[in-house]
Amino acid sequence: MQTRNYFCIALITLSFTEVHLVYSQNLSLVEKYISIADSLSKRAQYKFSNALIDSSNSYYNKAISIFELNENWKGYVDVVNKKAWNFVMKDDNREVISLLKKAFLVSNNQLDPINLVIASSHNLAGYAYRDIGDFQLSIHHFEKCINIRLKLVGEKSPQVAGAFNDIGTVYEKIGKNDKALIYYDKCLIIAKQLVKDDDPRLGSLYNNMGMVYLNEGDFTRSLKLYEKSLSIILKTYGKDNLKVATSYNNIGIVYRNTKEYEKALEFYQKSLDIRVKILDAKHQDLSQSYNNIGNIYRIRQEGNKAIDFQQKALKVRLAGLPDDHPLIGVSYLNLAEIFSQVELDSAVYYYNMSLGIFLNKYSYGHQYIGKTYMGLGNVSLKKQKLRKALNYFQKAVDSMIVEYSYKEIYKNPLIDRVISKPVLLNALVGKAEVLFEIGS
Hints:
Number of helices: 19
Strand content: under 5%
Radius of gyration: 26 Å
CATH class of the domain at 195-260: Mainly Alpha
Oligomer: single chain
Largest sheet: none
Helix content: over 70%
Order of helices and strands: HHHHHHHHHHHHHHHHHHH
């Protein structure tokens, strides 16, 4: 009987040893797969390539399978996050969200909720929901990321600084510039303690801060921050890089706002030249370049060129985005602006198409809503429908003030909580012009 027990113990020990050996071999393979995938993914960040990203994902898939087989759930979620980041680079936010739902399902059942890999999942979800226009859900995930990282690594860490920057981008997109600057300043204070002055993360932060000051109408400060960002990014990545293209594009936006249209077109074209070299024809960054160049031609009253570029932008957006995505609304808005110079009924059609999308996505207060109401006001003024024009201009004013509810047509709001000062100023000018016409 005793001999039999020893035999059983020996079998169990042998089985355990074999399992441990297989698991060790699997771990060795996992490390190899992840290392190859990380390398491919990093190369893809410097020069966008779907082929590199797909190859990277094939190795991540192998690692995910091994982690799942061995029920190593922390490793599983970590690699799912890495794969999701690759789809962020591809601008495929639906796939990012699909992957992260799997990660959250595993995390909720298998892991401590206060965990850095879960924080990374929330951070990626914040990116994805921001980019599809679901800003409330984006803020929810970024806040969860911040709370976890604060508990685990403390405030003075790159992870927390990065999360402050990320949530700031959402508040900037919804026009809450004061909140965006609060988070950007928090990020800057931490980052200056941790990195050198030419660190590319500071370049990205200066770019984001430049966008807020652009929205505030402070074009001098905005241009200074954009140029500071460009200097760092060029030094880090070289001239043919998507981050450089973004910097050129943003400098072009400043020059457009200061009415230096030749300079604006020069920087927009520099941005487009880089993007055409690197990106797939359906990538949304291309639609941004087409859109911006089209706007310059519209301002210069080169209608045919303007329509051509705006239709290119709309085609890319319709091919890659949901029908109610805000960027499709932007394309409709820009086509409306062009037609407002030549064909008023078509302009009204496109303004209403854009307004339907913006009201659905942004509720009431957003600069695009203000711009659309302002456009409808201008068209109504051209048609000499003065009361209708006045109503639209007032709606434009209302939409530019946070939580503004006083609707008296002959009074204007205080300007301490303005979403976009340039839009508000133009709406007030339009309103004044209509009141003058009615009075005379």
